[in-house]
Design goal:
By secondary structure, this protein is mainly α. Helices cover 69% and strands 0% of the residues. The protein is built from 9 helices and no strands. α2 runs antiparallel to α8. The longest helix is centred in the N-terminal third of the chain and has 25 residues.
Length: 196
Amino acid sequence: MAIFGEKFYKNLGELSPWQQSLFALVLAHRQSPNFLLYAEMNEDTAAQNDFMHVLDTMWEYHMDKDNHIDLESLLEQLERHIPEIEDDTPYGAYPALDTCISLSMSINAIINHFGDEAEQACGASICTVAKYLEITDDTLYSDEELYEKQLIVEEMDFQIELLNTISKAKRSLDFITKMKDECAGFEFSNIGISRY
């Protein structure tokens, strides 16, 4: 979805690996209620626990530059619970999948780093909002029509502000702690799912 424009994606691509990882991690944290609700509806406690373990461990990774966290095994733990989409897949699997994409991009930005991990996470998060609007309104929207939707505007504003914050930052414990604390204050996901 080319809803942000070339300049935004160019700036995302210019972020360093740790910045791309952090960008994706914040988006994943904000989306996390979408995945946790899906796992709860499926009575999948293991998925809930593993997801939160991966999320928390990625924060640990960013807070300690000298850590010895095995990111590949962390990615494998997450991948076990990524929803598979089929023709009869219920709607809840889609935002859950997008959440997993964002979190996996946070890990991949470090271990594989192709340079588009932040963009992939950006797309997954905004895709969740667009699909939610289309499902609830029972309408297929063009990009131009989506621009007029409040939830899309809020999502874009959030990501633009996040990019501005991270792009100017130096990697430090204080900065990462501040970002994590802000994430802990999110009461709702990008589509209004409560974290409580």
